[in-house]
Model the fold of this input.
Amino acid sequence: MTGLMVDSDAWIRRFHPPAAGEPERTPLVCFPHAGGSAAYFHGLSRLLAPAGIEVLAVQYPGRQDRRGEAPMEDVREIAAAVVAAIAPWAAGRRPAYFGHSMGAAVAFEAARLSEPSVLFASGRRAPSTHRAEAFHLLDDDALIAETERLSGVSSELLADPEMRELVLPPLRADYRAIETYRPEPDAVVRVPVEVVVGDRDPRVNEEEARAWQAHTTGEFGCTIVPGGGHFYLADRTDELVALITGRLARLPR
Done:
C-alpha cells in the first residue's frame, strides 16, 4: 500500500451506490483504456449492481470534470494514485480490479501494491510481452485515425475541433504512458488473474494473452471472446457480466 495522499472523490466515481439499509456490495475497481474515462463503465455498473457488485470507476486526470488537471504519463504513478484513492473503500475488505487495455497494465501495477481479491486483465497482452509501438509520437490526424481503428472514440466526436482539443492531450498522454511502460519481465502478483480478450483484437493475440499466467502466483484463467475486437465490451457485455459475477462468486467469504 502506498502512503500517497490523493483526493478520493476526484479519482473514484460511484454510479449506482447501494441505498441505505442495503447489504454491502463487493467493490470492483474499473480502470479505463487509453483516452477513456470513468463514464465508460456506467453501463457495466448498472448491470453488476443487482448482483451485489459495486463498480468504483477510476477517473484519470485530464478528462471530463478533471480536464483542468495535467494528464499523467507514467503507468506506475497512476497505479499508486489509484491505490491511495481507493483506500477508503478497501478498509476491511479487498476490492477486485478490472482493467481494460492500458487499464489492465495500471491495474496490474496497482495489484502489485495492494493485492486485490482478483485481477481481471482485459484487452491487453501480458506485461512480459512487448511490441515496438509509438503511436504517441504520431501527429494528431494519425493518432485519431488509430483510435478510430480500434473503435475507442467515435469519428463524429473527434471531428469537432473543440472536442479534439479536449480529447487529444489525455489520449496522447495515455499512449505515452502505456508505450513507455517497461515492467520487470518476471513481475508477478499474488492474486488470481482472469484474462479476457477478443479473438480479433489487433493489439493482443492468444499467445500474448495466455502469457499473463507467468505473472501470477495464484489461479489463472483466460477467456477468448469469439468475434470480439479490442472493444469487445461494447457488444458482449452480458458475457462479461456473467464472467465477472461467476468469478467473484467463487471468492472466499
About this structure: The chain is about 35% helix and 15% strand. The mean pLDDT is 91. The first helix runs from residue 8 to 11.
